[in-house]
Task: structure prediction
Amino acid sequence: MLSCADDNCKRLRRRGVRELSCRAQLRRACKAAAMKPPPFAYDAPETIDEALGLLDEHGDEAKVLAGGQSLIPLLSMRLARPARLVDIARIAELGQIFLNGSTRIGATVRQCAVERSAELRTANPLLGKAIPFIGHGPIRNRGTIGGSVAHADPAAELPAVMLLLEAEMVLRSASGGERTVPAAEFFEGFLTTAAQPQELLVELRLPAWLPGTGAGFQEIARRHGDFAIVGAGAVVQLDPGTGLVTDSRLAFTGVAGTPVRATEAERMLVGHEPTIAAIAEMAAVARAGLEPSGDVHASAAYRRHIAGVLTERVVKEAVDAAR
Amino acid sequence: MPPAELQTPHTPHTPPDESPDLTVTVNATVNGTRRSTTVEPRRTLADWLRDDLGLTATHLGCEQGVCGACTVLVDGDPVRSCLMLAVQAREMAVTTVEGLGSVADMHPVQQGCLDAMSFQCGFCTPGFLMAITAYLARRGQTAEVPDGRAPSDDEIREALSGNLCRCTGYQSIVDGVRRAWEITSESAGA
Ligand SMILES: Cc1cc2nc3c(=O)[nH]c(=O)nc-3n(C[C@H](O)[C@H](O)[C@H](O)COP(=O)(O)OP(=O)(O)OC[C@H]3O[C@@H](n4cnc5c(N)ncnc54)[C@H](O)[C@@H]3O)c2cc1C
Ligand code: FES
Ligand code: FES
Result:
């Protein structure tokens, strides 16, 4: 559930994860963990403006609490010690979904909302395919879509989905007003995004799902429900007349500090028929373009290998869905 | 007469910290009864149930969301009570295994799991019972099974994948779910 890359520690500390500075420390912290959250002050604002005021006033000392499925374990292990939590779950405005062509999802919409809404899955089939890979049902019953995107775990599904969809994150702060950041610029590194501590992620904007487009999502994990060792997602659009690929996108989780798009491999399919051979060639290029690091769960070579295998699977899945 | 310190009903095991005098009032409906206490905001729902309300049937295994022993229902949905603060459950309806049924009047899920002997040490059982209850209730509501088909092994295993058991090897739990489904459909048909 947690990971630590040494070079990312400065960033982590800036994000309020103060006690984690290396893998050994993480291990020690887990072993000695009190498993109860440290004391903090708590606010549950009912409007966005109230929340923004609190974040502005308390700056680095405060942390947003959404579903708590990542933050509460960090608190219990004493890896984060914010002085104040701003619980955004009671802000009605953040829990709304708007479907009209494009899809706008409020930050605190729970992950389970996608599983429970056929309408939402039709509006965005990629979201529907990726969400069931997140943890287990009870985690998705509390975890929010915005929380997963804001947390930016490199192995998480939703950041990769946002990257594939070329979605936009809407951030708001008391002093800076509202700004919109494209997914390609949002994920900056391990647990690090473009959002500033006083900024609230308020909404995710997903472009309209175009006709003739299919999605695929697959991953390999040690155990069902674990964070994946490597995950892959693909979106393919076919010309209804010729059957040639008009748009092709491919992204991975778990192979770097952020989710990554395989831009070179993606382009290979455009203008071509998506044959088994063409997809295999694409997978070879995608695999060669990755520089994953190895850890206790999987070596770099294994990660690269399964990235190739998953590429073939998800692109075929997307092509079949597009037909 | 036991020494004074043993007379206190239950000592909350939240470790002593530099304790700020920050408290919040948590009021929620627990197993159908309104409960209200004043706690620190850091109190998890699991500790609130166990230490403040004395409802110790909910077990704590990993306290990091992995094992599912602490599963309770919040507004009908199974959630990890170790990963929810009590204050987050304010104004919500919480159901623990104490709220399912009694020895004299068992809930179909309890009866099903007893019939199939779905437990050995029993540590994981409260979490499983809550997860199974929510699964069967939701399955009954969705129109996905119009033919009244019994849940398949795969379906059951997927639904319970977030709960770990170190003893049974899971097969007897899968059998218990199917038995619970039978009891529920028999009583619905009767
Ligand atoms: C056992 C277990 C298994 C899991 N497996 C997976 C998995 O396979 N894949 C996966 O992707 N996730 C997994 N998760 C994590 C889960 O998806 C979390 O729900 C998610 O990462 C965070 O969402 P949350 O709403 O719970 O956010 P929280 O935990 O409340 O917050 C997470 C972080 O984001 C910040 N934040 C949240 N919302 C906002 C906002 N609107 N604006 C600004 N900052 C915000 C918080 O301050 C905090 O730093 C797992 C968790 C557990 C416990
Ligand atoms: S104790 Fe809550 S999931 Fe293990
Ligand atoms: S019966 Fe012992 S852990 Fe499940």
